[in-house]
Design brief:
By secondary structure, this protein is an alpha/beta fold. It folds into three domains: 118 residues, Response regulator (Rossmann fold); 133 residues, Response regulator (Rossmann fold); 151 residues, 2-Layer Sandwich (Alpha-Beta Plaits). 42% of the residues lie in helices and 20% in strands. It starts with 21 loop residues before the first strand and ends with a strand. α6 crosses α10, α12 runs antiparallel to α13 and α13 crosses α14. α9 links the parallel β10 and β11. It is flat and about 80 Å long.
Length: 464
């Protein structure tokens, strides 16, 4: 049996001495977070998707393809009457996938109800008549998808979720034609994008300077002043590392094939010739937006620790070096290293799953107290934080507060066990005008080692 430890500094010397570790039994599993459709999404909003179809097999396929994520609810209706009951409850519907032929609405009346309610709607139907397709697209449905093969179902599921993701995407249109600008804006807003407009290259550069969230932009070739090719070249030169997809657009006759090559060579990711089909335009924007999202996701995976969500060691070392170089010579800078006491015993006695929960909770507590400082998980149970422009006393007080907060945590590791852990912290504060990263790291590690030798669960600060 693992005995509970006293909340004092240093080693307690009790049987099964875990020093920084306390264990006990929880009264139950109240408050355990479960991932299921219906929880509030991490963005703080409820995401409700709706499938309007009377075929149970279609509903089953889409439900499987959507692969439930936290914060999402999948509503279903098999008739117009059931849909109207849902709408009457004032449930905010994020996006809907609707069949046109229902038992009590054989001609798309239920899909019309969704449009009238302002719900972004995709049609998924066996009706393949082109006239009907154009009719519904002109009414304002986002897309018209035929049930003519199994491969269209994954596309329908992806598009349903994309209509939610698009709400956080900003598209910059660089176009001097008012008519074409209005048409492109309309179809992109129908797809839930936030659209920014620029009538010249100069306005586009202003947008890029003031708004860092633009992920896709379209650039017309013929612009007043700087033309589209010159604008793209300027953007790629000025923002070489910025994740931004650019679609070149031009009404120059197709016989001038060199223009499309020049767009791609100048840094465009795609090219579209005017006049173009607005659906094709939307598909290309979607594909480019997805490409940027995939790039950012891979970047996050490369820079962040998958378990805690904090930055990883590689990111921390790279950005610490940059911050030290940019730090004014007269400003102090501190490095703190934190280690969870006797963490190996957590894994040995409670299992690695419990150890993962402890790491996540400690990381969360640190992030809450140390944000927006540069913080990372730099080892198995070790964390590091870089603190600029504060005195040794201020940094010591800050990290003492972190130590106390972690000591007071009660961590439910499931199976009825509740753990408390402590941490040892070592700090190095630079008193010199120039201190390199390796010196800060090694001295902070020396202070951490001293804290552990002195009994753990304490803060030790050194200067260089």
């Amino acid at each position: 049996m693992i005995k509970r430890q006293q909340s004092n500094h240093g080693d307690g010397g009790l049987p099964y001495d875990f020093r920084g570790l306390k264990a006990g039994k929880s009264a139950g599993h109240a408050g355990v977070v479960c991932l299921y459709w219906g929880k509030v999404h991490r963005s703080g909003t409820m995401i409700n998707y709706l499938i309007l179809d009377d075929d149970p097999l279609v509903i089953k396929i889409i439900r499987h393809l959507m692969r439930a994520e936290e914060g999402e609810t999948l509503l279903t209706a098999g008739s117009r009457a059931e849909l109207q009951a849902i709408l009457a409850r004032d449930i905010p519907i994020t996006a809907a996938l609707a069949d046109l032929n229902l038992p009590d609405a054989a001609h798309g009346e239920a899909a019309g109800d969704l449009l009238q309610a302002g719900v972004p709607t995709l049609i998924l139907t066996s009706e393949s008549d082109d006239d009907i397709r154009h009719q519904w697209l002109s009414k304002g449905v986002v897309d018209y998808i035929n049930k003519d093969g199994r491969y269209w179902y994954p596309y329908a599921a992806r598009m349903l979720r994309r209509l939610h993701f698009n709400r956080n995407k900003k598209i910059l249109l660089v176009e001097d034609s008012v008519v074409e600008m209005a048409a492109m804006t309309s179809v992109l807003e129908l797809n839930q994008y936030s659209v920014l407009q620029a009538g010249s290259a100069e306005q586009a550069l202003e947008w890029l300077t003031t708004d860092k969230d633009i992920s896709v932009m379209t650039v017309d070739h013929q612009l007043p002043g700087m033309n589209g090719l010159e604008l793209i070249q300027t953007i790629r030169y000025k923002y070489p590392e910025r994740p931004l997809s650019i679609i070149g657009v031009s009404g120059v006759p197709l016989k001038h094939t060199q223009l499309s090559l020049d767009f791609i060579r100048s840094g465009a990711d795609d090219f579209l010739h005017k006049p173009f089909n607005l659906q094709e335009f939307t598909y290309r924007v979607n594909n480019n937006a997805q490409m940027i999202e995939t790039h950012l996701q891979l970047k996050r995976q490369a820079e962040n620790d998958f378990l805690t969500g904090l930055h990883n060691r590689r990111y921390f070392l790279t950005h610490s070096q940059e911050m030290i170089q940019q730090n004014p010579a007269e400003n102090r800078i501190s490095m703190a290293s934190l280690d969870i006491d006797h963490f190996k015993k957590v894994n040995d006695h409670f299992g690695h799953k419990a150890g993962d929960i402890v790491l996540r909770q400690v990381a969360k507590a640190m992030k809450n107290q140390l944000s927006p400082l540069l913080l990372a998980r730099t080892g198995g149970e070790e964390f590091s934080v870089l603190i600029p422009a504060h005195s040794q006393q201020e940094v010591s007080a800050l990290m003492e507060g972190v130590r106390q907060t972690i000591e007071q945590l009660t961590i439910d590791v499931e199976d009825g066990d509740v753990l408390s852990v402590t941490v040892s912290i070592g700090i190095c504060t630079s008193q010199r005008q120039s201190t390199d990263l390796n010196t800060l790291l090694s001295t902070a590690d020396e202070a951490l080692y001293t804290a552990k030798l002195s009994g753990r669960n304490q803060v030790v600060s050194l200067t260089v």
